[in-house]
Amino acid sequence: MHFEDPADLNRVCTERLGEKAGRQFAAMARRGFRLVRTAGGARATGRCRLGGPALLEPETRWPEHSGVPLSLHAVLDTDALAAWLGDELPVRPGLLNFFHLDPDLPYEEYRKLDMLSSEAWRVIPADPARAVETTAPEPARSYPAVPVHAAEAVMLPDCWDVEDADVEFDRDRHWGASSLILGAMGDLDGNTAGSHCAFGWPDTSYTLKVSSRDADGPAVHLLQLAEDTELGWGWGDAGTLYFTIPAKALATGDFSKAVAQVLCC
After folding, report:
1. How many domains does the chain contain in total?
2. Residue span of the structural domain in which 247 resides
3. DSSP string, 2-14
4. DSSP states of 41-80 as a string?
5. Of all helices (H) and strands (E), which one includes residue 31?
């Protein structure tokens, strides 16, 4: 769930959850962006866009999975996003290219590939001063280039990303913190569903484990790409593609640790 004004976020949380739990939940907010087409006068944010050629340094090889080239789905210009993200972007990787195995490969091609392999996706950074437009080799699909405006937002987690220790709740009334959030914030929960977003929180993370507490720390959400009929991509029935990265890997700029996951109905 997202808010354009942090003050609105704090007000809604305390009104619906009470003073203490509301402040605790509001503290989980992360800064992110809604990626919207540059219609109606909105200007593109730096070199952020969906589709189009990749922006890679000249010596960078196009990523492949078992000899099959991946498709470029998006480019984020982190220099243009850094001011809003602040400490939530501990490194300045320049341009980030997001690749995934083409969802429209013939079935025979899919069957011989391990879709859960880390080779099925890639996030490749590039120095903006050295990056050049690089066209996808066959049979990777090239999507139309769509410049996007990164609309600043403050995002709260999906109810399933809240753990019991995060928010104080009445254990006689609720089976867990997720129950409290689902009941009180239900009409706002998941309001980034069906849209393209960067950083912040994804629209649903029940199986993404964005808030998981493990040896690598909580994961950071990098990109959410929804089904897009204009661009011509989709992942199953109302599927969404998510990219995340462990917080420690982001802090060191190690984007080889990024993970992609598709969730669909």
Report:
1. 1
2. 2-263
3. EESSHHHHHHHHH
4. TPPP-TT-EESSSEEE-TTPPPPEETTEEPEEEEEEEHHH
5. strand 30-37
pTM for the complete prediction? 0.90
Number of H helices, E strands in the chain: 6, 15
Runs of H (alpha helix) within 117-210? 177-185
Which comes out higher in pLDDT, residue 208 or 104? Answer: 104
Write out pLDDT tens, residues 103-143: 777 666 666 676 667 888 999 999 999 999 999 998 888 89
Cβ neighbour number for residue 74 with a 10 Å cutoff: 26
CB 216: neighbour CB atoms within 10 A?
13
Distance CA 241, CA 34 (A): 15
Beta-sheet pairing, 95-100 with 121-126: antiparallel
Position of tokens 């203490």?
20
Angle at the Cα of 172 (from 171 to 174), degrees rounded to 5? 60
- 143-202: per-residue pLDDT in tens? 999 999 999 999 998 888 888 898 998 898 899 888 888 888 877 765 566 789 999 988
Place of tokens 């109810």: 159
CATH code of the domain in which 184 resides? 2.30.320.10
- Determine which helix (DSSP H) or strand (DSSP E) holds 123, and give its type and residue range: strand 121-126
Half-sphere exposure of 79 (CA within 13 A, CB side): 9
In whole angstroms, what is the distance from residue 107 CA to residue 80 CA? Answer: 39
Cβ 27 vs Cβ 180: under 8 Å: no
* 43-80 confidence digits (pLDDT tens): 899 999 999 999 999 999 999 998 889 999 999 999 99
| 8 A C-beta contact, residue 33 and residue 104 | no
